[in-house]
Amino acid sequence: MSRSVHGGRHELGQNFLRHLPTVDTIVRLVRRTEGPILEIGAGDGAITRQLAALGRDVRAVDLDEHRVRRLRRRLPSVSVVQGDALRIPLDRPVVVGNLPFHLTTPILRRLLTDGSWSEAILLTQWEVARKSAGVGGHTMLTAQTAPWFGFALHGRVPADAFRPKPGVDGGLLTIVRRREPLVDPAERADYEQFVRAVFTGRGRGIGEILPKRRRAALKDAGIPPSALPRDLSPSQWAALWHG
């Protein structure tokens, strides 16, 4: 295949999924959802073909114009579009994607701040998936967005499942937009600044890091003063904010 005008595999971050059990798990998770599907990073169509078989409206996006042409020929029932995951409209209720590993964080940030989608099923680097789901501690990004989104981990995907083989394992992550936010969306910018200040603040535990006026909320939220910001649950963060 000819080289894309956007670069070769390394520039495009292409690691194609070849692991049928993982494809089956992704499709099983998609079956639980409703409505039209947007697939990010369709590649050679390993996931796209199975999504098309669901009989739902599927739009598949890829940056590589050559793969887009091939998928259009192979899957005429799918709307295959050439586009950049950092710019395409996120306007379908279900988002599916084997995300380019080098773009995982910017794509996640965009998903969590843009679009009208309801559920996302994403294949990312293992560490990103694990930390996003709060296994071993939350990241600042997930703490900032958890009042509006729920995160869940659905397994580790070995590097051998991809071709070419990447240097790290993958992880299967789902994100669901909360129907009842834990914090008023109108307060989101201020809330995110609050979380950032706590994550970057000085102290040996949350009891020392928090501003004095908020420390009284620790007991009501069931948070020990020695806890670290990464240890707090979404409901505990919301309790501190409202306190």
From TrEMBL:
UniProt entry tagged with the keyword Hydrolase: no
List of residues binding S-adenosyl-L-methionine: N15, L17, G41, D62, D84, N98
Family per record: Belongs to the class I-like SAM-binding methyltransferase superfamily. rRNA adenine N(6)-methyltransferase family.
Annotated ranges, domain Ribosomal RNA adenine methylase transferase N-terminal: 22-179
Highest taxon, organism lineage: Bacteria
PANTHER family on file: DIMETHYLADENOSINE TRANSFERASE, DIMETHYLADENOSINE TRANSFERASE-RELATED
Name of the protein this chain belongs to: Ribosomal RNA adenine methylase transferase N-terminal domain-containing protein
Species of the source: Amycolatopsis bullii
InterPro entries listed in its UniProt record: KsgA/Erm, rRNA_Ade_methylase_Trfase_N, SAM-dependent_MTases_sf
NCBIfam families associated with the record: Erm23S_rRNA_broad (NF000499)
Keyword annotations: Methyltransferase, RNA-binding, S-adenosyl-L-methionine, Transferase
SUPFAM superfamilies: S-adenosyl-L-methionine-dependent methyltransferases
